[in-house]
Amino acid sequence: MSARFEELDWRQTPMGAISLRRRRDPALDVDVYEVKLDDDFLMSSLFTAGEVELARIGLAATPGTGLDVLVGGLGLGYTAHTALDDPRVRSLVVLDTLAEVIEWHERKLVPLGERLSADPKCRLVKADFFSLATPAPEFTGRFHAILLDIDHSPRHVLHPSHASLYEANGLTALAEHLHPGGTFALWSNDPPDAEFTKVLSGVFSDVRTHTVDVPNPLHAISAANTVYTARTPAA
């Protein structure tokens, strides 16, 4: 049986102090993995429906086979793991600005680390996703789908430098990294945002919002997340 509580890693990073904790939940009799940035809870293995649905919904909106997919934000790996389960995915690049998070997976400190580190289709890359919105030589390729789960929402960002991505110029630059007919999918912890949807519609076509129920295994309630999908015009 696992220890009741264990801090698996703690590091000081440019974004703040990040920690990975594992605790045993006696009510569910499971190990729960949690990530904190300073005093802010970023993610928990108890609540992964949003991350899973981001990949499922985003790839469902993407036609074709032999898909090259980019995921912004590794976290505990549930979005990347779900993308790899889609047999149409040919390659998967996962960007995270924190080397520490990638290291958790490579050291198999988190449950999905072994698969993500070992799958030949998957590359875990230390890089700032938000440099996609500016000319950067390391991001010259195009993808069939870009799945983004880093900020809490377009209005609640983890760092002020992220905010410009959710504006028209930032989204236009991001769209340049998609093939014609490619999909941009974004997870948000907030309800559908009409103003942001309007900005998306000015850049992309076929913009949709999807409400995702996130059940709470400890209580008979659920929370609602949003997944936005938007496609570039077909050639």
Provide a brief overview of the structure.
The protein has helices spanning 49-60, 78-84, 99-106, 113-118, 168-175, 194-203, and strands at residues 5-13, 16-25, 30-37, 40-44, 67-72, 89-96, 122-126, 143-148, 178-188, 205-215, 222-231. It is an alpha/beta fold and 235 residues long. Helix 1 packs parallel to helix 2.
How would you portray this structure in words?
- This protein has helices at residues 49-60, 78-84, 99-106, 113-118, 168-175, 194-203; strands at residues 5-13, 16-25, 30-37, 40-44, 67-72, 89-96, 122-126, 143-148, 178-188, 205-215, 222-231.
- It is globular and about 55 Å long.
- Helix 1 packs parallel to helix 2 and helix 5 crosses helix 6.
- By secondary structure, it is an alpha/beta fold.
- The model has no long low-confidence stretch (mean pLDDT 90).
- It starts with a strand and ends with a strand.
- It is built from six helices and eleven strands.
- It has one domain: Rossmann fold, CATH 3.40.50.
- The longest helix has 12 residues, at 49-60.
**Secondary structure tally: strands:** 11
Average pLDDT works out at 90
Number of helical stretches of at least 4 residues: 6
Tell me the CATH architecture.
3-Layer(aba) Sandwich
- The best one-word shape is globular
Beta-sheet strand percentage?
35-45%
Low-pLDDT stretches? none
Could you state the CATH homologous superfamily? Vaccinia Virus protein VP39
Strand order of the largest sheet: 7-6-5-8-9-11-10
Order of helices and strands: EEEEHEHEHHEEHEHEE
Structural class label: alpha/beta
Distance between the termini: 55 Å
CA gyration radius, whole angstroms: 17 Å
The third-level CATH topology is: Rossmann fold
Largest sheet: 7 strands, mixed
Number of individual domains: 1
Portion in helices: 10-25%
CATH class: Alpha Beta
